[in-house]
Task: inverse folding
């Protein structure tokens, strides 16, 4: 059993698809399949139930997945600790979808300029999944928003961000010069799925103001929320970092006159995992950019 075989196995297990996993690990699909087959032959058990469009872990596969994550993570940490030159290696960064495309690019650009021989791997996922990956050692740090549900993690507050009201140019609220929480009462809202913390932030704010908007549509991307608002499907509250880069002419953003809704952006790390000099440098890049 080789460490690369375990990496191949974990990639298929996470993506649930041999084709996607082959792209991720940089192999042809046939080469990846042979690697998994050799592992199955050595263990004497099938690890995946190979269905038409997906690969589902068997009982033996689920057992191996837990141990393989520990083994691969341990090997990576050992290599990083021994070969810690502060200039080369990988930094695995997790971020939620409402932060990743708006907050990370400039920080990544700065870091790559200062550390050209380093490789930053970005994983975009929900807060719950990022937390799990921090525990497993699959990522080194995460940029997310409160609340963070997880014990034994370091949660460092970076900054407070305003949430702005997004309406179409045809919506009655677009004409108001002063927006109050009560203006949201009874409005049709477009929100992200319940797994996304932005929805928690929005709903929590409305409930604090005893306002109960109607949620009529849900999606997984801010870009889709913006397009649906443009089509007059409803209104929404959008992070300022997303509104700052939106140049569409058929929708507008409005700040509240008082009691502005906000969310708290945080940096999350696992204190029980080794942090290389490179990881610490990336964290410093984020802190210095605030």
Result:
């Amino acid at each position: 059993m080789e460490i690369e075989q375990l990496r191949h196995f974990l990639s298929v297990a996470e993506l649930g698809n041999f084709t996607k996993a082959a792209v991720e690990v940089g192999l042809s699909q046939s080469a990846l399949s042979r690697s998994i087959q050799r592992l199955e032959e050595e263990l004497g058990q099938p690890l995946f139930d190979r269905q038409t469009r997906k690969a589902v872990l068997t009982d033996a596969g689920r057992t191996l997945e837990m141990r393989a994550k520990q083994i691969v993570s341990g090997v990576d940490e050992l290599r990083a600790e021994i070969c810690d030159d502060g200039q080369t290696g990988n930094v695995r960064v997790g971020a939620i979808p409402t932060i990743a495309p708006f907050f990370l690019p400039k920080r990544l650009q700065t870091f790559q300029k200062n550390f050209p021989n380093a490789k930053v791997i970005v994983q975009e996922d929900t807060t719950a999944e990022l937390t799990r990956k921090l525990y497993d050692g699959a990522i080194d740090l995460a940029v997310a928003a409160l609340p963070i549900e997880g014990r034994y993690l370091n949660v460092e507050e970076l900054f407070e961000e305003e949430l702005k009201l997004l309406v179409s140019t045809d919506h009655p609220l677009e004409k108001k010069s002063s927006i109050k929480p009560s203006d949201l009462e009874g409005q049709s809202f477009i929100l992200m799925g319940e797994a996304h913390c932005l929805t928690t932030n929005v709903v929590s704010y409305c409930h604090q103001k005893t306002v109960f908007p109607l949620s009529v549509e849900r999606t997984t991307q801010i870009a889709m929320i913006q397009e649906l608002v443009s089509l007059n499907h409803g209104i929404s509250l959008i992070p300022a970092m997303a509104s700052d880069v939106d140049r569409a002419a058929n929708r507008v953003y409005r700040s509240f006159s008082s009691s502005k809704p906000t969310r708290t952006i945080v940096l999350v790390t696992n204190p029980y995992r080794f942090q290389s000099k490179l990881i610490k440098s990336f964290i410093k890049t984020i802190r210095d950019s605030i």
User: Anything to note?
Assistant: Residues 143 and 267 are 5 Å apart (CA to CA). The two ends are 45 Å apart (CA to CA).
